[in-house]
Amino acid sequence: MKFITFFIAALCLLLFNSCKNEKEVKPIIQDIKELVFASGELEWDNAYNLTAQTDGVLLNANFEVGNKVLMGTVLASVDNKTNEINTQIAKEQLAIANENLTLNAPQIQQLEQNIQFAESKYKQDKIQAERYERLRQQDIGTKIEYENAQLNAQNSLANLSALQKQKLQVLQQAKVQQISTKGQVQNSEAVQKFNQIVVPESGTIIKKLKTKGDYVRKGEVIAVIADEQKVEAVLNVDENNIGKIKIGQSVFIQLNTDKKKIYNGKISEILPAFDEQTQSFICKVTFVETLNSSLFGTQLEANVLVGEKKNALLIPREYVGYGNKVNVKGKEQPVIIKSGILSTDYVDVLEGITKDDVLLPLKQ
Predict the structure, then answer these.
(1) Where are the coiled-coil regions (predicted)?
(2) How many domains does the chain have?
(3) Could you tell me if 269 and 284 are in contact, meaning their C-beta atoms sit under 8 angstroms apart?
């Protein structure tokens, strides 16, 4: 990618062209513009990659470049039996988890039987303890028999309480298992939906990268889709010039498919990160007029207006030496100038000489 910064100084060319670093020249006063050149291409707004979300063989990929697709359309499918099997297993596990919460669950039935037995035993032990207590009040029977009856009733009650708590605990564990399994079902169903390649946003297919029968992996691009209703120019700007680019600056664009026409645009976005692939910074331009042709990927050349100045004092750049020194006729020592806008051809002089000075070629 080659970038050039250059200036337009329309009326001064005759004076400078006659010099060629061999003759005396005089500065001129002229309006100038500073432009940053950048190449790029036409892109459509909201272009995105439609990717595979799971591994498998691509099926039903019956689409072509140029097809318009609506949001929610199933563009293709991926043959992945694993996702289907996992969903079926999760559903069967959920059915078991649901059953474990009912009275028909084997563990619950066993606990219910134990609880009923414990309740019967507690009632019997309680009656026996009350009988021994009445006998004891009548001073009948021994103290040991009375105490054993009381102890048996207390143990039976404790056993009944433990079984009832155990039942609650089993039900709670079953509920947790149900929640977990239900989540697994939902996750499996979500993953299974990845078997279908669904269009997330309406647009037009501009690239088809996979076809029916291809084995695709998760993350691989199937197609590229964009919205052709909004066309923008994407520029690659050199890192040496990106600091001059600002939002809203005017851009003059020439399409490779229509080099007779210059389109006007505005810088609308400057991406904040360096693009490793193109080794440049990416800037987007919004057109201020309708394009005759807006084919996606059309190559283009652009000039961004980054500065302009009225009545600038210009001298040929080849007359400026190291340290901004110029040779002025009638002066023994070189004069140091203060420069403004620089280009490959001209220098905007801010201080150091006047329009009446005559410049001499640099010494070889």
Answers:
(1) 108-166
(2) 3
(3) yes
